[in-house]
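dumping this here before i forget
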Amino acid sequence: MSKTAFLFSGQGAQFVGMGKGLYETSDIAKSMYDFADSKTEGRVTKFSFEGPEDVLKQTINNQPCMLTYEAVLLTLASEKGIKADMTAGFSLGEFGAMICAEVLSFEDCLTLINERAKLMNEAAQTQNGKMAAILGGDPSLLIETCKNLDGYVEPVNFNCPGQTVIAGDHDTIDEAIEKLTESGFHCIPLSVNGAFHSRHMDSAAQEISKVAAAMTFRAPKIPLLSNVSGQPETDFQRLVSVQMASPVLWEKSIRYMIEQGVTRFVEIGPGKVLVNFMKKIDRSVEAVHITSLLGIEV
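structure:
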């Protein structure tokens, strides 16, 4: 029997206006957004619907905005009987996956993500880091180039064949971009304000573990793939902490789900970043955005 997996987008996929149409046409969406506003002093609707982009992309604003939008889409899918057999989320999206697998409620997840965003934002401001997507080229040359630079930089997101993300010190990332471009890679600085999934986030990871220790994580109702291992996760209290400063093994997670019989992947979030990754990982499986199944426009 074929299986369906829900995939939740990560930070960087946001756009100004996301969720506004849902808020105006769905009582469910309005209720969830109003609740999110009550926990963020109105920031979720303000920055999601109005921006500006440079404020929306800031970690402290972006994460609750993204989580709320994804939780709304998930709830609307559930109302229509659209269900998943497995789930995974890219970085921040892992929290949407926790809601999907009923590990945490939306309310608890929003509380956790507000603290996570605050801690990551503080770490980003202290460390002055940067990230960039590196397209094409020889992966071994990418790794070797990073190793040979004096400052700190390393591959952290293994998205799909031909796309890896690096993170590290701001100036070292700029140097890496220059050298990798000379070697034939196409380099794209990412619209985030820190070096996430790198050692720049170690202090934030330690602090979020204290917040997670006070929360109750339920056993997942469906398998939830971890960014850290690319395998089903069971210890979510630990995952909340370690995933902040660990690489995202996205391609490995997807290939595991395909091996387990998943033939349809449904992206939940703004844009179609993960759908596009799927085209490079395995074109034999179906990859669609949840809005096409709900019959709505983003």
